[in-house]
Design brief:
The protein is 53% helix and 10% strand. The chain has 17 helices and six strands. Strands 1, 2, 3, 4, 5 and 6 form a six-stranded mixed beta sheet that branches.
Length: 351
């Protein structure tokens, strides 16, 4: 009622859950672009304008999302989750879209359908998959919203239910007989990742018993969980940096690398293959730090983190992003732009 004079419509009544309530709102909406915001979260100033202008300028885009600040229960910023480009292949392995930042064309829902009212958790992820399967989703490099996590957040308070919903979503997705082979090949790792996302989150939030129980459940259902080690490395490093390296849920920030070592030692004995990834996960942590330092224009720290990443994992010497940052922080952005524009010299013909 506090904002009644600013709203076209509002109602407080019984519904069939969160998804049902959101769908009711969307059906009442008359605009061409829709979104939803949970009561814990907030938009950044200018967020709606930025999203609408982007969609107006890119008619081929079905949905857009952006950077999202992490805020604690007091509303203080404790970190940022950057919007990275996604497609249906990457989205199946990792949900990189922060829901509060998403803006969708209304006509898209006519094709994909609305939120699934049978899902109590991860219904946004289900919708993203249905959209990305046939249409384009773009990342907008602008901070659009603030995501507030607290002890009662569904993904925090009910990790087992969260995993079951993710599995249900993925199994239904892969049951589609019209999926191309390139997508069907991702089924195993997508299901493994549905466990790993929650397991790592449990350990990050000191829910050790839940994390260990989910780990044992995962290894029973998917004993060959290490098929795609690169995905596991990415998961673990991002959890360490963004959910551990920030004062998250009223917990003091921890050193991500020290936390990773503690996490590895706390895993059950059957996690030998996971422990072998520790050096590469640490290298990935340094990589994330390098990019964040680069974005913050701290060239010295960026170079230090790049060197640490290369020492831990020499394979990262082939990472073009790190090499590009390394060169740019040495020669400057202007020189780097000239180098990128300069055509390569023609090679002499071989005899």
């Amino acid at each position: 009622r506090k904002y009644e004079n600013r709203l076209a419509y509002w109602v407080s009544e019984q519904d069939a859950g969160q998804a049902d309530a959101i769908n009711k709102g969307w059906r009442r909406a008359t605009g061409e672009i829709i979104a939803y915001l949970n009561s814990d979260d907030t938009y950044e100033p200018g967020a709606v304008r930025a999203a609408v202008e982007f969609l107006a300028q890119h008619p081929e885009t079905a949905m857009v999302y952006g950077h999202c600040y992490q805020i604690n229960p007091q509303g203080e910023r404790v970190g940022m989750l950057r919007a990275i480009p996604v497609n249906i292949h990457t989205l199946l392995l990792h949900n990189a879209i922060m829901q509060p930042t998403a803006f969708i064309r209304r006509r898209v829902l006519d094709h994909t359908g609305m939120l699934d009212v049978e899902l109590g958790h991860a219904m946004d992820y289900d919708l993203w998959l249905r959209i990305a399967l046939h249409q384009r989703i773009d990342a907008l490099p602008v901070s659009l919203a603030n995501f507030r996590a607290h002890e009662e957040s569904k993904s925090v308070a009910k990790p087992f239910v969260f995993v079951q919903d993710r599995k249900r979503i993925l199994k239904r997705f892969f049951a589609n007989p019209q999926l191309p082979p390139s997508l069907r090949a991702l089924e195993h790792q997508a299901l493994v990742n549905s466990f790993l996302t929650t397991i790592l989150g449990c350990f990050a939030l000191d829910q050790l018993d839940a994390g260990k129980e989910l780990w044992n459940q995962m290894t029973v259902e998917y004993p060959d969980y290490m098929t795609q080690s690169e995905s596991i490395i990415e998961f673990a490093a991002n959890i360490a940096v963004h959910n551990v390296g920030a004062p998250w849920l009223n917990r003091a920030a921890q050193d991500p690398i020290q936390w990773l070592k503690t996490f590895m030692s706390a895993l059950p004995p059957n996690a030998y293959a996971m422990r072998k990834l520790e050096p590469r996960i640490i290298a990935r942590i340094h990589t994330i730090r390098a990019f964040e330092a680069y974005w913050a224009k701290n060239c010295t720290i960026a170079r230090i983190e790049i060197l640490r990443a290369w020492r831990r994992d020499p394979q990262l010497l082939k990472n073009r992003g790190l090499v590009s940052i390394w060169i740019e922080t040495l020669v400057g952005a202007d020189v780097m732009q000239l180098l990128r524009r300069r055509p390569l010299a023609a090679q002499p013909p071989t005899q």
